[in-house]
């Protein structure tokens, strides 16, 4: 049987870290603002996609993971921490 979900049933490993880092930014960045930052970097996502990523309801591609890391100013490995 294939495993395409984490042990907690989430579709990605990075969502919790994305939310934690986003909320810890000064000034705090909203999901809409993060989506806008990603759009400026060339990634086509909206606020709803960010909400679904953070809640674990959406898969995240390697391209999206790289863009998230760049926009949030962290290494990709930081987003994959449990």
Report on this model:
The protein has five helices and no strands. By secondary structure, it is mostly helical. The longest helix has 11 residues, at 62-72. The protein has helices at residues 15-24, 31-40, 47-55, 62-72, 76-79. Helix 1 (15-24) crosses helix 3 and helix 2 (31-40) crosses helix 3 (47-55). It is globular.
Count of helical segments?
Answer: 5
- Give the SSE string: HHHHH
DSSP strand count: 0
Beta content: under 5%
| SS class | mainly alpha
Q: Which helices and strands, and how do they pair?
A:
Elements: H1 15-24, H2 31-40, H3 47-55, H4 62-72, H5 76-79
Question: Which terms would index this structure?
Answer:
82 residues, mainly alpha, 54% helix
């Amino acid at each position: 049987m294939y495993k395409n979900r984490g042990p907690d049933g989430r579709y990605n490993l990075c969502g919790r870290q994305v939310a934690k880092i986003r909320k810890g930014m000064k000034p705090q960045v909203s999901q809409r603002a993060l989506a806008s930052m990603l759009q400026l970097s060339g990634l086509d996502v909206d606020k709803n996609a960010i909400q679904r990523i953070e809640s674990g309801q959406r898969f995240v591609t390697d391209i999206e993971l790289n863009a998230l890391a760049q926009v949030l100013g962290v290494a990709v490995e930081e987003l994959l921490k449990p």
